[in-house]
Amino acid sequence: MTRDSGSLWPDTVAPSVEQLAEGITLLRGFCRDEAPALLDAIAEVAALSPFRRMIVPGGHTMSVAMTNVGALGWTTDRTGYRYTARDPMTGNAWPAMPAALLSLAQRAAAAGGFPGFTTNACLINRYAAGARLSLHQDKNERDYAHPIVSVSLGLPATFLLGTLHRTDTPRRIRIEHGDVLVWGGPARLVYHGVAPIRQGTHPLTGESRFNLTFRRAVL
Ligand code: MD3
Ligand code: FE
Questions:
Q1: Which of 33, 36, 150, 166 is deepest in the core (most CB within 10 A)?
Q2: Is 179 in the pocket of ligand 1 (CB under 6 A)?
Q3: What CATH code would you report for 16-215?
């Protein structure tokens, strides 16, 4: 028998756990089975707080479209990056964290060595072909004792995994639908990014990639 689509095989390999560095664990396939429920939850969030391309302080518009779920949400505009309790676009509180998302974040953090993770903020990124995230640190949370859990759905991506020094050349890590990355402790402030997404079609997300990053933030 032949495969009719070579692009489907990475979604079907067995789950595995891979330690990428101290404090960084890649849980391949960890949320593959629950992915349809996660995508339903994302659609419900986006109906209340739509995806939007935000403006960074330099004046450029991000290629990634974003929204948030949970008590706090990350935003940027011309004046800077921050967490807020309200969606600046609607004036309403960010949508409440659905149980399916909270459960996944806690199970993944525990599997990555951080039991008892109490996330209160989840940034949801949506990538179309060509969208990218340049090398950065996640430091607006102001409390680095907690890990970050990253969930990837849909089209594959290449993560750029740097170090604590911005100018070090990052490693390139291929990430597939259903993969979950947990990073914390000594790795909490490493530089990272996402290479431009290659065009393609995924059976569950079409021409998009979604990434959820669960965080613990303080205003
Ligand atoms: C951190 N989003 O929203 S984490 C972000 O795919 C963000 O949309 C990524 O970075 C995305 O702030 C998901 C990417 C990532 C990859 C490797 C890392 C973060 C990392 C390695 C160490 C630490
Ligand atoms: Fe980040």
A1: 150
A2: no
A3: 2.60.120.590
Residue 48 Cα to ligand 1 midpoint, Å, equals 25
Instruction: Find out whether the beta carbon of 133 lies less than 6 Å from any atom of ligand 1.
Output: yes
Q: Domain spans of the chain?
A: 16-215
Q: Which of 125, 123, 112, 127 is nearest to 214 (CA)?
A: 123
Instruction: Tell me the whole-structure pTM to 2 decimals.
Output: 0.94
Identify residues whose C-beta is under 5 A from ligand 2, the ion. Answer: 138
Pick the ligand that lies closest to the CA of residue 184: 1
Q: How far apart are CA 58 and CA 76, in angstroms?
A: 11
Distances in whole angstroms, Cα of residue 67 to Cα of each of 61, 126, 173, 180, 192 = 15, 9, 25, 19, 20
| Ligand 2 centre distance from Cα of residue 173 (Å) | 15
What is the Cα–Cα distance from 215 to 150, expressed in whole angstroms? 9
Q: Which ligand is nearest to the CA of 137?
A: 2
Digit-by-digit pLDDT tens for the chain (219 residues) are 333 444 455 566 678 999 999 999 999 999 999 999 999 999 999 999 999 999 999 999 999 999 999 999 999 999 999 999 999 999 999 999 999 999 999 999 999 999 999 999 999 999 999 999 999 999 999 989 999 999 999 999 999 999 999 999 999 999 999 999 999 999 999 999 999 999 999 999 999 999 999 999 999
Is residue 161 in contact with ligand 1, taking CB distance under 6 Å? yes
- DSSP alpha helices (H): ranges in the chain? 35-48, 99-111
